[in-house]
């Protein structure tokens, strides 16, 4: 798969590091083109460039940008019709105390409204950058990546990316399930920071 | 601890079975007083009676009643000032497709408004009755019971009940964290039923 990573802060760097080692072709996009190119070079197998270059190259675009800049970032991608857009964000309020959207909608659904031609998939929002950048293996097993979206093939592509980077994908149904996954991301943030468990935590759905 | 279980359908029966075997004193309350007494007798160590008898007896009251009858049930308990009320419900819409309340409030917070003198604790809403009634031990370890509430001692009492019945309690902070725990309950229901994983599933927070 041709994968774009949009943003090179914590989550973007984590994805770049883990996907660079897979069979997939990675293009790192940043507002700071030089920095994206440097990161790509230091990783070895990836390319770097602008948001637009990265999005134009890829079949799957991972949006590793914060919620409050999402609209600007989406506008900078160019035409993303038919492409898979992976929304990994947690739409926090500016003071980080809660969610900015929810209940009757979700960040994922709001993103889908902005780029109706893209296949939006929610995933990875419960995975901390600290987990993504280190090992996702816990004593109990792999961390789960909860995935939802309205396009079956797009979800399968994201599931494959999750598997290839060492996670266990869990299909949570339609994109509207983001209304439950985003509060789970918020719970994760609450446990890691407010409840001071630290950010090396992850959820696993146990089955019998 | 003196524990009341309000309701003898799936969750209530599960609590009755697992708490009857602990050191705690259990009083099973039902609208059907005879049935509550029968259940208590068949279990061996518990008492049975009306909602009011059960609530009057207990320090900790587990509300194993559905969301849509909650107001009536709370009214039937009598004075619960100073007591610990454990809200285990998932406030589903009548067609089970989503949550009835959320985002700026939660079932737990709405219950606290109805009985302001009680110490409301949210817990167990992500534990299926099928898990509660069978074994809560999974290959990976114990199922987590996510707990939140505004009274520290009340949370500690509920944590002890969770531990004594074989779960691992996870303190999620203030009662308003129910805004994230209730969507997690909904996600659990969605995975178990709509995504057809079955109801013998449970979440575990993995830590390094």
Descriptive labels:
homodimer, globular, Rossmann fold, alpha/beta, 8 helices, 208 residues, two-stranded antiparallel sheet, 38% helix, eight-stranded mixed beta sheet
Let me know the largest β-sheet of chain A: 8 strands, mixed
Distance between the termini of chain A: 33 Å
**Spatial strand arrangement across the major sheet of chain A:** 3-2-1-4-5-6-9-10
Tell me, rounded to a whole number, the average pLDDT of chain A: 97
Task: Tell me the CATH topology of chain A.
Answer: Rossmann fold
Element layout with pairings:
The structure is a homodimer of 208-residue chains.
Chain A: E1 2-6, H1 10-20, E2 25-29, H2 33-43, E3 47-49, H3 51-57, E4 60-63, H4 70-76, E5 84-87, H5 107-114, E6 119-122, H6 129-133, E7 137-138, E8 141-142, E9 144-149, H7 152-164, E10 168-171, H8 178-194, E11 201-207
Parallel strand pairs in A: 1-2, 1-4, 2-3, 4-5, 5-6, 9-10
Antiparallel strand pairs in A: 6-9, 7-8
What does the model show?
The structure is a homodimer of 208-residue chains. In chain A, the strands form two sheets. In chain A, strands 3-2-1-4-5-6-9-10 form an eight-stranded mixed sheet, sandwiched between helices. In chain A, strands 7-8 form a two-stranded antiparallel sheet. Chain A is built from eight helices and eleven strands. In chain A, helix 2 links the parallel strand 2 (25-29) and strand 3 (47-49). Chain A has 208 residues and is α/β, with parallel strands linked by helices. Chain A has one domain (2-194): Rossmann fold. Helices cover 38% and strands 22% of the residues of chain A. At the A-B interface, helix 8 and strand 11 of A face helix 8 and strand 11 of B. Strand 11 of chain A pairs antiparallel with strand 11 (201-207) of chain B.
């Amino acid at each position: 798969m041709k994968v774009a990573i949009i943003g090179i802060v914590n989550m973007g760097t984590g994805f770049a590091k883990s996907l660079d080692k897979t069979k997939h072709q990675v293009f790192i996009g940043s507002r700071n083109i030089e920095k994206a190119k440097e990161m790509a070079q230091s990783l070895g197998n990836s390319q770097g460039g602008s948001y637009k270059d990265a999005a134009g190259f890829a079949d799957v675009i991972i949006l590793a940008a914060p919620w409050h800049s999402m609209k600007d970032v989406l506008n900078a991608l160019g035409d993303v019709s038919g492409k898979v857009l992976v929304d990994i964000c947690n739409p926090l309020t500016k003071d980080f105390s809660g969610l900015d959207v929810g209940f009757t909608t979700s960040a994922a659904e709001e993103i889908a409204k902005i780029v109706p031609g893209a296949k939006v998939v929610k995933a990875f929002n419960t995975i901390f950058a600290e987990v993504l950048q280190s090992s996702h293996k816990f004593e109990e097993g792999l961390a789960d990546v909860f995935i939802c979206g309205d396009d079956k093939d797009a979800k399968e592509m994201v599931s494959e990316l999750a598997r290839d980077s060492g996670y266990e994908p869990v299909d949570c149904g339609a994109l509207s399930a983001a209304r439950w996954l985003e509060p789970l991301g918020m719970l994760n943030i609450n446990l890691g920071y407010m409840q001071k468990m630290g950010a090396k935590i992850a959820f696993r759905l146990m089955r019998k």
